[in-house]
Amino acid sequence: MALYQRSYGAEADYGQAVERSQVVETFQEALVRTPLLADQTTPEPEFDDNETRFRDAREHANWLVNQLLDAGWLARMVDDATLQSTLGFTRAGRRFTEAFIDDKRRNQQRSRHRNTRNTRNALQSFLAHGEVYDLLDAYDYSERIISDFTDVIEELNERRRALVREMQNEFDVQRVTAEFFEFMEQRFQPDIAIRLSADSVEKYREQISAVIQRIRRKPKAFKVEAEQRLRELMPDWVQPGRSVLWAVLDGIERRLKNAADIMLPALRRSLQHFTKRADIIIRQMNYLATQKHADVAAALSRLTNLPSAEQDRRLAAAGAVLARCQVGLMDPEHIRLPERARSAAINHQLTTEPEGDQSARQAVYVQQALDQAFYISQQKLQHYIAERLAQQEQLSSADLPIDSAEDFMAVAHLISAGQLADWVVEPTGRRLQDDYFYQRDEFVLSRRTLSPEPSVRETP
Predict the structure, then answer these.
(1) Same-domain check for residues 100 and 123
(2) Cα 207 vs. chain centroid, distance in angstroms?
(3) Is 85 contained in some domain?
(4) Residue among 245, 260, 267, 256 at smallest CA distance from 142
(5) CA gap 23, 74 in Å, rounded
(6) Is the distance from CB of 148 to CB of 111 less than 8 angstroms?
(7) Residue 456: what are its φ and ψ, rounded to 5°?
(8) What keywords would UniProt list here (predicted)?
(9) Predicted local distance difference test score (pLDDT) of residue 39
């Protein structure tokens, strides 16, 4: 990594090739700064106590240069004019070292919460100018959207596990709380909050889909030229009967769909679990910190296992210490009696009924009397029929006597007896005339027969 920074970093001198002596110096400085690599200069088991594998860091650096040359990570290049030998990364060595450099850059500030907007901007540029490199940039940005979501979710899960480990090892409430709020201020606010609001995939998904549809509706000449240029740049993507342009656009839409439907809900769930776990752990650690000096129960348990004489001696010593305590009265300024809630006054006085017209009250009374006069309850009707059918199984309505107004109402409502559970009313088809009815139908009343069931003796 140190050689990569010197060769391709911001402070690299691209006009001058790196010689072997410069590579050795770079490795020597890195060995001094890295104790893990410098430990190889200490005695090894196969050597004697007074013998070391490398006498100093420079010899160790020369050995590393030879190892990297033999492995193919570095290559020796000779200038034909000056016959000067220089060292440099091979293509495989540079690609291999880039992974470590990129991983180190993850902890630095970078605009990784702008990939959704960068995808939209690159597609709009391709739509306006037809440059296929803009389309390839949009495809690359869409891939970074998924990877960024994965990185953030893994970071949240790792921090949640770190909180659990710290809870198991120590109870430093202030340090853990400070780290939690530092993460929320420096990591959550500038990155995750923007990803869920300003750079939300749901916010720009419709715009990106609209731009892709406009690209699909471009003239045929535009799409043919883009297809030919993409086939030249990406020959591995060329397949019979398959459009490379359509494959790139479909890949961008598929990634956006996965980011919006899968990764974004997963990020929200991970963030919710992280905040819940952090809240639970911090509450528990605060509780443990407050209970750190509450060892009365432990002291009492130890006293129970001691002899009586020892218990008396220790309790007497504790009493002597507590005797020096001073008891004071509370400050009256801090005593406040709660004010009783006053119930709202309600006027319970009833208003007097206004005196109405005599004729109006009489009309109301007459109407109520008429309503009650032509009404008979089901209980009275059942009692009337039960008295008449006390000694027989069937009875015709023509044989029912009418001795009072209640009997008249019972005969008039005889048809409703069929709704009762005890009686069956069946018409005979005959018409009857008497002093009370101008014309009425004849019915036969009989007791309802039930299907035979096991008798059950009822207790009083």
Answers:
(1) no
(2) 27
(3) yes
(4) 256
(5) 10
(6) no
(7) -120, 125
(8) Coiled coil
(9) 55
427, 443 in Cβ contact below 8 A? yes
Any domain includes 222: yes
One domain, residues 156 and 93:
no
Number of neighbours of residue 443 by Cβ within 10 angstroms: 22
286 and 137 in a common domain: yes
Question: For all residues of the chain together, what is the average pLDDT?
Answer: 76
Looking at the structure, tell me whether residues 86 and 22 fall in a common domain.
Answer: yes
Instruction: Among 105, 136, 167, identify where a domain stops.
Output: 105
User: Which pairs with CB-CB distance under 8 Å and at least 24 residues apart come from 265-272?
Assistant: 266/149, 266/153, 267/149, 267/152, 267/153, 267/156, 267/192, 267/195, 267/196, 268/196, 270/152, 270/153, 270/156, 270/157, 271/156, 271/192
pLDDT digit string, tens, across residues 254-289:
888 888 888 888 888 888 887 787 777 777 767 766
* Residue range 206-218, pLDDT digits in tens: 889 899 999 999 8
The enclosing domain of 81 has a CATH number of 1.10.10
d(CA 15, CA 402): 132
The helix/strand count (H/E) of the chain reads as 18, 5
My answer on whether 129 and 81 are in the same domain is no
Indicate the pLDDT class of residue 43, thresholds 50, 70 and 90.
Answer: very low
Of 79, 105, 131, which residue constitutes the final position of a domain?
Answer: 105
CA 418 → CA 146, 148, 294, 394, 437, distances in Å? 77, 80, 81, 14, 21
Task: Give the pLDDT confidence score for residue 350 in this predicted structure.
Answer: 55
| Same-domain status, 247 and 388 | no
Distance CA 289, CA 286 (A): 5
Consecutive H or E run containing 440: strand 440-447
Q: Does residue 200 have a pLDDT over 80?
A: no
The DSSP symbol for 99 reads H
Greater confidence (335 vs 262) lies with: 262
Token pair for residue 228? 């030919």
Q: Are residues 82 and 192 in the same domain?
A: no
Q: How many CA atoms lie within 13 A of 170 on its CB side?
A: 8
3-state helix, strand, coil in the chain (%, to 5): 65, 5, 30
Q: What is the pTM of this model?
A: 0.45
Is residue 305 a part of any domain in this protein? no
Structure tokens at 239: 């397949």
Of 147, 132, 420, give the one whose Cα is nearest residue 249: 132
Structural domains counted in the chain? 3
Asked whether residue 6 falls in the same domain as residue 99, the answer is: yes
194 lies in some domain: yes
Sign of torsion over alpha carbons 30, 35, 36, 42: positive
